[in-house]
Amino acid sequence: MAWGALLVVLCLCLRALAAGPGTTPETRGIFEGIESKFSLRTPAIPDEDICYLVPGQKDSLAHCSFNHTSKTFLVIHGWTVTGMYESWVPKLVDALYKREPDSNVIIVDWLTRAQQHYPISAAYTKLVGKDVASFIDWMEEQFNYPFENVHLLGYSLGAHVAGIAGSLTKKKINRITGLDPAGPTFEYADAPMRLSPDDAEFVDVLHTYTRGSPDRSIGIQQPVGHIDIYPNGGGFQPGCNLGEALRLIAEKGFGDVDQLVKCSHERSIHLFIDSLMYEEKPSMAYRCQTKEAFEKGLCLSCRKNRCNNMGYQIHKVRTKRNSKMYLKTRSQAPYKVFHYQVKIHFFGKENVTKTSQPLLISLYGTTDERENIAFILPEISTNKTYSFLVYTEVDIGDLLRLSLQWEKDSFFSWTEWWTSFTFDIHRVRVKAGETQKKMVFCSQDGVAHLQKGGEAVMFVKCLGNPVRRRKAGHKPISEIKTDP
User: Fold this and answer.
1) Which of 109, 131, 180, 274 is catalytic?
2) Most buried among 11, 99, 252, 390, by the most CB within 10 A?
3) Residues 77, 151, 226, 265: which is the catalytic one?
4) Domain 30-327 classified CATH 3.40.50.1820?
5) What are the extents of the domains in the chain?
6) Which segment of the chain is annotated as a signal peptide (predicted)?
7) Cα separation of 339 and 366, whole Å?
8) 30-327 against 338-409+421-461: fold identical
């Protein structure tokens, strides 16, 4: 009997050793169903999984040098064809550590479930979300780790994993950032099955690939956070066309070919990385009801939280309804641009209406200049005011003067061969989005004659007595419609 009892004790000891340090039979029962892995990456080796935090094993946190007093980022990848991490993972890890050196950056590894057929992997988001929630609750229960130090960053399907995890934790976590959350099977899903504003104290979302019908869009089209930002309208990102892809392949080879295939979808990650790396100059987004109104420059207001930083430095504004915001970006990092609303009233002796007209605008500032910015005015009509958006990739400083040029159409037109169209412009009104400055520019000759196919006309800051300008035929500024 003594030998039998000794054998039972020995078997129990062997089972305990196999389970790992710090594990009890109770914790094994709670956490044995977790398949997801939690790798604590390091600043020195951001691209390798060298230490895992194991739910139920207290010693694993000490072994991996988990920092109990700093914030924790959990990065959750999306669907994968190869079953391997994508090249953006170490880039995001490295950027997070550069911005927050004392933090914990944990990669949630659910690669086995994420490499199935898409509908199967999409269904697995529930189980993976449950795994992540169990991990967060365990850290809080075992070590009193505060929920306000937890920030989940989920890409594509990983964004919905983050949402489900946030909905299952015992207390609300601090923040979830959704990086172009996946659209298929989630566009019309109920809130508990996808990312939603209820899943964290603050949920911000970047939408970068929302093309096509809602049920076929790679990225989800509907707003699913407290603040939803749609860079470049959210449908397609600059630099992601075929010509740009071929140019990059010629310059850099096929090493980043995966970036080119899913360029717009993955741009959400690189925009967030950009926000981590360029702390002093965050990109600015503006609240607007539609992207069409934003393209007209009608939404460059910062009053009542109508503008916000994009990415890591976003101001946590919780609203009763989803807040949709827009901005323009460059085709590569640093992505920040400077937005301007331009407003022009076109005068003329004859009633003329032209559609889809190509123009060039040049902006000259105190520190730099940007010449020949091309844009299309959908319509120009006599005695009407039009507003449009332009942006520069360089900071020109305070705007001092500008010029306008009306280009000829690219196609041959008999009408233009015999007739030269001209509009008169007295002044141009400009609002700078980043500085919120409003400026009025006048023609040096009193009236500028903008002729189709003619030379550029110059405008400088208006000076002198407004009454004198009105006597010269100018419309007083107070009579020109202001921003909505």
Assistant:
1) 180
2) 390
3) 265
4) yes
5) 30-327, 338-409+421-461
6) 1-18
7) 16
8) no
pTM, full prediction: 0.87
CB contact at 8 A, 294 and 330: no
pLDDT of residue 475: 47
Encode the chain in three state secondary structure.
CHHHHHHHHHHHHHHHHHHCCCCCHHHHHHHCCCCCEEEECCCCCCCCCCCEECCCCCHHHHHCCCCCCCCEEEEECCCCCCCCCCCHHHHHHHHHHHHCCCCEEEEEECHHHHCCCHHHHHHHHHHHHHHHHHHHHHHHHHHCCCHHHEEEEEECHHHHHHHHHHHHCCCCCCEEEEECCECCCCCCCCHHHCCCHHHCCEEEEECCCCCCCCCCCCECCCCCCCEEEEEHHHCCCCCCCHHHHHHHHHHHCCCCHHHHHCHHHHHHHHHHHHHHHCCCCCCEEEECCCHHHHHCCCCCCCHHHCEEECCCCCCCCCCCCCEEEEECCCCCCCCCCEEEEEEEEEECCCCCEEEEEEEEEEEEECCCEEEEEEEEEEEEECCEEEEEEEEECCCCCCEEEEEEEECCCCCCCHHHHHCCCEEEECEEEEEECCCCCEEEEEECCCCEEEEECCCCEEEEECCCCHHHHHHCCCCCHHHCCCCC
Q: Is 362 a catalytic residue?
A: no
Going by CATH, does the domain composed of 338-409+421-461 fall within 3.40.50.280?
A: no
User: What are the pLDDT digits (tens) for 218-276?
Assistant: 999 999 999 999 999 998 899 997 666 566 666 666 555 555 558 999 999 999 999 99
Question: Which pLDDT score is estimated for 410?
Answer: 60
- Known catalytic membership, residue 156: yes
* Positions in the chain short of pLDDT 70: 1-29, 242-261, 410-419, 464-484
Instruction: Please indicate if the annotation marks 199 as binding a ligand.
Output: yes
Which one of 156, 264, 268, 387 is the catalytic residue?
156
The verdict on whether 180 is a catalytic residue reads yes
